[in-house]
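Hi there. Long-time user, first ticket. I'm pasting a complex I've been working with (about 926 residues overall). I'd like to know whether the download I got is complete or cut off, because the file seemed smaller than I expected. Thanks.
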Amino acid sequence: MEKIESWLEENRSRFQEDLFALLRLASIGTDPAYDDQVRQTATWIHEFFQSISFTSEWIDTCGHPIIFAQSPHIEGAPTVLVYGHYDVQPPDPLELWDTPPFEPTERNGNVYARGATDDKGQMITHLFSCEAWMKVNGGLPLNVKFLIEGEEESGSSGLNELLAGVYDEKLGMPVAEKLAADIAVISDTSQYGPGQPAITYGLRGIYYFELRLKGPNVDLHSGAFGGSVSNPANALTEMLAALKDDHGRIQVPGFYDGIVELTEEERKQFAGLNFDDEAYKKSLGIDEVFGEEGFTTLERRWARPTFDINGLWSGYQGEGAKTVLPAEAGAKFSFRLVPGQDLKTIKSGLEKLLAENCPPGIEMKLIDMHGANGVVVSLDNPYMKLAANAVEKGFGTKPVFTRSGGSIPVVLSFRELLGIDTMLLGWGLDDDNPHSPNEKFSLSDFFKGIKSSAWLWNELAAK
Amino acid sequence: MEKIESWLEENRSRFQEDLFALLRLASIGTDPAYDDQVRQTATWIHEFFQSISFTSEWIDTCGHPIIFAQSPHIEGAPTVLVYGHYDVQPPDPLELWDTPPFEPTERNGNVYARGATDDKGQMITHLFSCEAWMKVNGGLPLNVKFLIEGEEESGSSGLNELLAGVYDEKLGMPVAEKLAADIAVISDTSQYGPGQPAITYGLRGIYYFELRLKGPNVDLHSGAFGGSVSNPANALTEMLAALKDDHGRIQVPGFYDGIVELTEEERKQFAGLNFDDEAYKKSLGIDEVFGEEGFTTLERRWARPTFDINGLWSGYQGEGAKTVLPAEAGAKFSFRLVPGQDLKTIKSGLEKLLAENCPPGIEMKLIDMHGANGVVVSLDNPYMKLAANAVEKGFGTKPVFTRSGGSIPVVLSFRELLGIDTMLLGWGLDDDNPHSPNEKFSLSDFFKGIKSSAWLWNELAAK
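Hi, the file is complete. Here it is re-exported in full:
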């Protein structure tokens, strides 16, 4: 590894030049005006893999192309699947950028550009580490597969078709066989804080619903009719409020059944992160945190299920007073889920509870928008320990193990389709502005990421 | 009265011609493009009063002019104050009218035009009855004052200033003295049904609020933050739902205090109206009526207080799913009130109950939009019995006594400013479309209204 480390040091400025070249391509996947630059970006990656003697396949999809690349095959060695995306968020509002989004600029040790951290800068660390192994050692110590899409920011239509088997013929085999691996790696998240790398080992799931209530066939005058017919807006507040009790406990029958509770070790770990509630409250402009009794803020965010209303509407929303008894009311709401919860149980329990609380004269319609389970990789998973070693080598600091309150659908797909866990090795920082103006990525973390990745191949090969 | 009745019969077609002339004037008070026709309408009324030897005063206001007219004074006789309005609702959508809104057309015994029933056609019955008395008898048997405004459909700014004393100098005396009367009469409502005239003796009051909740300073990602901070949309549903218990009883402390309950006689009267719940449900497209336990539909609509949400908003209301934890949520809601309830008690009780249910981390702001008490005229009021006699003479049928769930602010003003009750003598029908296309008014009811009004002066004078 000494030789590889030296080679990485020597090529530091070239890595940066390559990163800047990649960031200059405006691969805005949502906007057809940029289709040409999207394809140039895919081409850049495709050609990069070819230049380091990987087999690289260009897969045209219903959306933007997917690049699938593999290191030279080593029989019997473990296989790692690396996922990344080369598309970026639209840069608007442009006027809030200090320097243009597609003219990468170095400032205060960071590169500022759209895609710097999400995900070009993070993804490419794994490409450069492979290059190092190929050039210094003539090969990698294990099998690495890359799956890089161009629609992460716009619904992953192509990837979803690929995972569903639509392109099996192009792949020459079933997709599960093509992607088969022992473990997956994604670098598209953040460190716990500056100087404190993290491995995210758990994600919450989600179950998103829309509820529509219909009362009278037209908006009525609340004076002439009020009191004699059910008001859908009142019914909506009553039905949604009934989903929680006075202690904030979610009342959907079976909701908490089967939950894999946090272990003492996990709770100790979270507590060791010294999360600062005061700073958190200040940053959000609130005077109190609030959540499930008996849990800390980090536990509530990362490892407990929730019920949040995402949208509400009914009747008159304009200026002044309008005495309307609305004909309709609606809400969007979602549950965040943790491993062990069952989507079917939740849906049927929810339907039952809502129906019980639906007053006479109101028709309800519950729309199932989408559901996904929570996932957690066991901290005893040997790959996790090896990855932690690699990150420590790269960053000079032991990573902490964190979870995230959000959902990353591809992680669930990998578990369901390939039966493998995903390790989220995030090189970014929480203030990188991935979907906002002035997106940035620390250049020293960029280099530490490359180094960590080079070590990762070494460590995982030892399994 | 025989001579007057004959004279009315003889002038039937002339009344209709005059009505049509008045309806041809597009007195759309909300639209400055029609200011000229609004003034022509006021002029028509002003000159009519002058033509029957009433003193008529043209009062310019901050809005459209008010016409105040008085019959020749009779010392010691009772005084009746008649209120009406000469402005009309905008006629849009024009394409839904079968004949143009300002070309009055006779069809199936009705006149179709904007303003036919609301309120030109109803108001003018009292002008023609006065004309009859003046022309046949040379005078009225009592004192009649007319207060006719041009902004009923657009907020009554001028009337409100008049009632507040702003134009006292123009009036030559305090407004309460100018308008002083023993009883007020308004014809701007409906009969109970075709062939069944009604006197409305009670109106509900209203107390309208807007509630705004603020949580975090920006919309948050519900995955990253959900469960750790109060969600204003959740808080809104909980706080509003807590305003009623499981039996629909309003929980605002002191809300029901002092309510003047329906008498047995009133309940018997309402029951005698044989209100058809099945037809009601069918017309509203609902499968069940619903309201306060122990009361009929009519009692719930006319004589019980309510809590209705008029509008709700928060977070994402568009297509699809957005995982937002909203920064804000809001609602408009109102209570309908019945006599005896106290506005101050309700407001302070409401503030208290909402504050108790407002979760940590949420700032609430309650905006008092407007409040007005409910009013009821005692059925023992001697004027009511006399008015009932008059209506019976005019329509050939005893009127029933009804209440209305809505509010008419001027009725409350008359009580507060002048200390008098108002009798609502409605010549219209529920399907007259007063605020919709194809507004109509039965020409035979128009004539019966004139006849009732002529008898009204006779009856009331006998008090």
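A couple of notes from our side: Chain B has a mean pLDDT of 96. Residues 443-461 of chain B form the longest helix (19 residues).
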